[in-house]
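Q: What would this chain look like folded?
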Amino acid sequence: MNTYYPDSKIPIGIWDGEAKMHYANFTVNIEFAAEPPFGDLIYRVKIGEDKLLNRWIYGRAMIFFDDRYALFESVEENTFGPINTILVDLHENKYAELDGWYDKVKSFDKPIILISSHSGEEKIIEDINSLSWIII
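A: My prediction, written as structure tokens:
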């Protein structure tokens, strides 16, 4: 199993069967779940030792920031799409679905601005606390 130490605000991609990501004071365990017919790898995610995310994530373009958050390209378990970006609060063990596929970050400052390189659409998050959070 490989171990990664992602830099804040810089996308990281993995293509391992399983991996550990150490970011700030958090450990994110990633385990292979499936390989879609169009490539890339999809993973199950566990925050710490026991908080299993009920969605799968793609191993490409994971972004960690502010010593507590992670952005993942996500799909429902046992599917390959549609892809939606989720924002995970590693400290509070919760996530918010962002209702779209945003693979780039224009701004990490307030407001947070995400961009879809596929549609050009922007997602502006004025207040992270106003998102609809789901407990992991």
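The longest strand covers residues 26-34.
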